[in-house]
Write a structure and sequence with these properties.
single chain; 183 residues; alpha+beta; two-stranded antiparallel ribbon; 15% strand
């Protein structure tokens, strides 16, 4: 079982670091542009007070175009063929079919949860947040079967640390009501 105090400190340290603060500010600014929030001065007042001003929808239009192109793009899952023996090519073909099946099963589950498809979620995260994060696991269900659980996360609230050669830890920050938390 992970040490909750240790993970909380790691997340807090990363969240309070100048590098993360700068990255988070960029993500927040990009979302504000996409949302069409009015530009405020350093004092928190609307710029050019007393004069005509407006917030252009150009940033949102551009971002929506990028999201639409990414959302509508065809996904290709393939392993490049080399001079392999027939059995090796069959193994690679099985890997491709597994990847395609995992994506379809994940999208089906997201649809059942009334969430956007994985491709749509990734398109928005990439265009607006500048990165993407998600959880991909196979879960043993209560009925004895196994199902694919893919859940895209808002990149703004995902924290991680690297070990010498690989990811050492990862955490997603969420806000929930106490009655929504299951033990």
């Amino acid at each position: 079982m992970p040490d909750i105090e240790r993970i909380t400190k790691l997340v807090s340290d990363q969240e309070n670091s100048p590098a993360w603060q700068e990255q988070a500010q960029l993500m927040d600014d990009a979302l504000a542009l996409w949302s069409g929030e009015p530009w405020l001065s350093e004092e928190g007042k609307i710029a050019l007070e007393g004069r005509m001003h407006f917030t252009s929808n150009d940033p949102r239009t551009l971002a929506d175009m990028v999201v639409a192109k990414l959302s509508g793009a065809k996904i290709k899952a393939f392993i490049p063929l080399t001079d392999q023996k027939k059995t090796e090519r069959e193994v690679d073909a099985d890997k491709e079919r597994f990847a395609i099946g995992i994506l379809k099963a994940g999208d089906e589950r997201l649809g059942n949860l009334l969430l956007p498809s994985l491709q749509d979620a990734y398109a928005w995260q990439t265009a607006i947040r500048g990165g993407l994060a998600s959880r991909w696991v196979l879960v043993n269900g209560t009925d004895g079967g196994t199902y694919v659980d893919i859940m895209p996360f808002d990149f703004r609230w995902v924290f991680w640390g690297m070990g010498r050669k690989e990811l050492a830890w990862a955490c997603r920050k969420v806000w929930k009501q106490i009655e929504d938390i299951e033990a």
